Structures are given as structure tokens and as C-alpha cells.
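WARN no homologs supplied; continuing
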Amino acid sequence: MKVISLKNDDKIIEQCDFSRNKYINEALDYHNKIQRNKLLEKILKKESSLVSKESIKVLKEFENIEGID
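OK structure emitted
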């Protein structure tokens, strides 16, 4: 476990419903989840763009199959 030293505004700390330690841990966990989601979104967009041309090619091949207009 790492120790972090912070200077906080008293007004912000007074709004905490529970211990500062728990509050900060939950805030860091929440922030980490947001960052992981942003990274995942970036990866998925990149991968999606990589396969989009191939997907269009496959779709055109299906359209050329006899009986499909």
C-alpha cells in the first residue's frame, strides 16, 4: 500500500460522508475506471477502422451472390 500526502480544501473534506481515506480511494478507483473505459474506446475505434474496409468488401461479395439485389 502506498501513502499519499495531500492538501485538501476544508470545505471539500467536510462534504465527505465517510473517512477521507475511503473517499480518496473511491475517487481514485472511479477515475481509474473512467480512464480504462476511455482507453478501451480508443482501442475499439482503432480496431473498428482497421476492419471496416474488409467488412464492406465482404458485404459487396454477398450482394453479388446470385439472387440478391
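Residues 12 and 20 are 10 Å apart (CA to CA).
OK
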